[in-house]
Design brief:
The protein is α/β, with parallel strands linked by helices. It has helices spanning 22-27, 41-45, 47-57, 74-87, 98-110, 118-121, 185-203, 211-233, 238-252, 266-277, 281-296, 302-312, 321-339, 356-365, 378-387; strands at residues 11-14, 32-36, 61-65, 91-96, 133-137, 149-154, 159-164, 172-175. It has a six-stranded parallel β-sheet with strand order 1-8-5-4-2-3, sandwiched between helices. Strands 6-7 form a two-stranded antiparallel ribbon. It is globular.
Length: 389
């Protein structure tokens, strides 16, 4: 196995009624706070009023950026960075799901750059500084609350790029499962699909690594499979929401990676789909994931599928490995498309094959697919896209 470094400096306040610590945490970094959020759902739920009250009670000065999109645009990053420069912002407070937190991370980095933030995404500018970031999570999905990465879209160029910079790691994360009670059935399902794929991107890996980490990932996947349907049927079930929220964070904060070196597969492909069609990220992953599994299953990878089927879905271990593998993929489909009730094809959401070639070219050009679980070239990606029609 390979050596690795694990360092997650984010402080987490998990559970109900933790916002009483918000003022003291923000105050550690200064007096001028930029609050970032999305379309205004936090005002409907009352969370906005609670946050503002804590900020004012701490004697801090508040500035706001609202309207951050579900697939956050570089225009929002530029708008936030401009506020930071103009108002001498000391600390950023992101309240929302992964899109808000992602956007806020790049706002923090762009605050130290005088040009278009897209240059940062294009890696024309190095990121060595970032304003301190604190977040309050309202949707369990992306894991952005406890990692240093983010994904930003540019509708003008039809690009969607994800990057990671250590300085963008959140300082503090407030994880209150009750803040996710109002998340819709559909978004709960999309979030579950997103989390599941985050784990699969690491789990389906032929690198020899710690047995312990595989068992952790299997436990995380079983948790999603168990509790996502409960949260969909009982949106105020605290146990279900808490398990999903904590799984969201640990699915992608780097812990389960260990010393694995293989690159991710589905995310580069899905980023092109949502860049061109602006669909929900988790839905795109749900449609792609089982087709990617089918495409990568062969005699060289079957052992991993066998392990997955037996340990996650409880398939009879006495069956032939290939039979277990194929049955495990069918059970993934059943979970995503029947249990979670997500659309199962691109056709259902209005996507045809007109852009498959250019999207495949961009997905491969983003780097990594040649070093994935099963190396993929442009032709492979087009075939997987066509399997999703």
């Amino acid at each position: 196995m390979n050596n690795f470094i694990y360092d997650i400096p984010t402080r987490v306040y998990f559970g109900e009624n933790q916002l009483g610590h918000l003022g003291e945490e923000l105050s550690k970094y200064g007096k001028r706070v930029l609050l970032t959020y999305g379309g205004g759902s936090i005002k409907k739920t009352g969370l906005y009023d609670k946050v503002v009250a804590e900020i004012k009670n701490a004697g801090l000065e508040l500035f706001e950026l609202s309207g951050i999109e579900p697939n956050p645009r570089v225009s929002s990053v530029n708008a936030g960075a401009e506020i930071c420069k103009k108002e001498n912002i000391d600390v950023l407070l992101a309240v929302g799901g992964g899109s808000v937190i992602d956007c806020t991370k790049f706002i923090g980095a762009a605050a130290f750059y005088d040009g278009d933030a897209w240059n940062i995404l294009m890696q024309k500018v190095s990121v060595e500084k970032c304003l301190p970031i604190i977040n309050i999570l309202t949707l369990a999905a992306t894991g952005s609350e406890m990692d240093c990465g983010g994904v930003i879209s540019n509708p003008e160029t039809k690009d969607k790029i994800g990057l990671m910079f250590p300085v963008m790691q959140p300082k503090v994360s407030f994880l209150d499962p009750t803040s996710t009670y109002t998340v819709s059935k559909y978004q709960t399902a999309c979030g579950a699909a997103d989390m599941l794929n985050h784990i699969m991107e690491v789990y389906f890996n032929m690198n020899q690594d710690l047995y312990m980490l595989d068992t952790v990932m299997e436990g995380l996947m079983k948790t999603i499979i168990k509790y996502a349907p409960v949260a969909m049927k009982e949106p105020e079930n605290y146990e279900a929401r808490a398990n999903l929220m904590w799984t969201s964070s640990w699915a992608i904060n780097g812990f389960v990676n260990g010393g694995k070196r293989q690159a991710w597969s589905c995310h580069p492909m899905e980023h092109e789909i949502s860049a061109y069609y602006d669909i929900t990220h988790g839905l795109g992953l749900a449609i792609l994931t089982p087709r990617w599994l089918e495409y990568t299953l062969d005699e060289t990878t079957v052992s991993k599928f066998y392990q997955f089927g037996c340990n996650v879905f409880g398939i009879d271990a006495s069956l032939p490995q290939m039979e277990v593998a194929k049955k495990s993929i069918e059970m993934v489909k059943e979970f995503l498309f029947q249990t979670l009730e997500l659309q199962s094809t691109f056709t259902e959401i209005g996507i045809d094959d007109s852009n498959f070639e250019i999207m495949a070219k961009k997905a491969v050009a983003s780097g990594g697919l040649g070093f994935a679980f099963k190396p993929l070239n442009e032709e492979d990606v087009v075939k997987i896209f066509k399997m999703c029609i």
